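Regression check, nicotinamide-adenine-dinucleotide case 564:
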Amino acid sequence: MHNAVYHTPDPINEPIRDYAPGSEERASLQHALDVLKSDPIDIPAFIGGEAVATETTTDVVAPHNHSVVLAHLHQCGPAETEQAIEAALAAKTEWARMDWTDRAAIFLRAADLLAGPWRDRVNAATMLGQSKSAHQAEIDSACELIDFFRFNVRYMEQIYADQPNSAPGTWNHLQYRPLEGFVFAVTPFNFTSIQGNLPTAPALMGNTVLWKPSSTSAFSAYYIYKLLEEAGLPPGVINMLPADDGAQVGNTALASEHFAGLHFTGSEGTFQHLWKQIGQNLDAYRTFPTIVGETGGKDFIVAHPTADVEALVTAIVRGSFEYQGQKCSAASRLYLPQSQWKSMQGQLFDRLAELKMGPPEDFTNFINAVIDQAAYDKITSYIDHAASADAAEIVYGGDYDDSLGYFIQPTVIQAHDPKYKSMQEEIFGPVATVYVYPDDAFDETLDLVDETSPYGLTGAIFARDRDAINKAQERLEQAAGNFYINDKPTGAVVGQQPFGGARRSGTNDKAGSRLNLERWVSPRSIKETLNPATHYGYPFLAPDEDAERSETTYSKAGNGSVTN
Ligand code: NAD
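Current build output:
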């Protein structure tokens, strides 16, 4: 019993560590890398707080050196999914009834553990398992996930504090119930922070969760689960079910009458499949499920002839090629004015030539490997296509090699047709396509930007001319859920640029914002009347003082009934 109105600590974005040569933080991260790759670990399922081994395991390997086995991953199927549903439902009542301040404290503790003693472990797991550089791991698995935990706690407080007015004699409340049933969180490989946020955001609001991590990021998923356990998350609140074949878990989870919500991030195709499956199962559910899904992007940079070329080149190098272009927000189509393209090409290619490629354990590498064989095959097929297409040519890069790891050189395609394949489709790799437009066709180019891709996730305008900035902002209103002016279209920060897009990029529920948390509650209005009426009558029912008029009115009305 607190007998107090608690306030959550003010959230502050976690400062990013530099890992500069000679620093203590660099040595400590390097030590964690050595420890984590010394012996493969076992990654079981976690159901009701118990580690559950299954009959089949597969190897989790480092993408930059596929002969290094990091872990043996236990594969779940329908039986484990049924058990997890039972565990989630069994844990629900107590978890939902727990005081919200206690739920907040668990996630604030998770944030502080991750900022402190768990930071190196989770960053090292992300570097090794997902082939991220120290910087890319730091901004993802440390800073962004810490921010998700801390800011979500504050948003929960704001939601709960949002209460209705009360007329004299009454006291009204909105109770923010968790959804009735369990939430199914399905996470992508490319961000450890998203992997951590998708199951925990609904859990914070009192839901219990089945979590299907991606098997190519299972190494960091394991440490996230252990971190939450260490922070005091009760058994059964989040149940982790790894599976190479998502349908092995998804089919059973989505067939359950208790399925109440999907929290998804991944490709558009998978989201479409899951949404259709939910539609087909609709009759079976006890409640209409909440569906939140953030999917792919075909994110753009459009430059006006007045753009600052150096800033533009830097934005392209970082925005298109950091983490090998495997960000949903990566700039993958670039609309550049003819006059600038001539002068900036050399600068861009010089910068790209400086980028070293190799394993993330060598901190001098800017580019690491792409996630797995399937991604490698898909990305290189776009390079091969451009190499032989009339409508496009490769103007930089184009080499690839998977003998040791899945390495693809940063590649720039120049499309002569603005609707060329690689201007429209999500490649999800280190490949950017440039379309060079005549300087006097800026307006028409904005139309092209808007109409070329089915996605609407992120985009950027580079210009000094304010009219051009305003024009782009207006014409591209629906083309991006996150719009940047003179900045790369990646790197959204929790609490500063809530993230998500519409069109084919998802439901735009803005991860890391109050809007997202509101999707995980089902509010109940409660009205209490302080001094209730003790007779049904209303004053207007009393007869007029002129008795004759009252009788006439009565007989004209026929039966004298009063409707409600
Ligand atoms: P993916 O669609 O291949 O897989 C996502 C998850 O869905 C994985 O865990 C996978 O195992 C699971 N899955 C697949 N089929 C399933 C089924 N039938 N039932 C249950 N689970 C199933 O995506 P990915 O390759 O892991 O991630 C890359 C994609 O994610 C890209 O398209 C990228 O743009 C997108 N993404 C979007 C955002 C965003 O915020 N919009 C952020 C990160 C990634």
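Comparison notes: The chain has two domains: 42-295+513-523, 299-495. Residues 357 and 367 are 4 Å apart (CA to CA). No diff flagged against the previous build.
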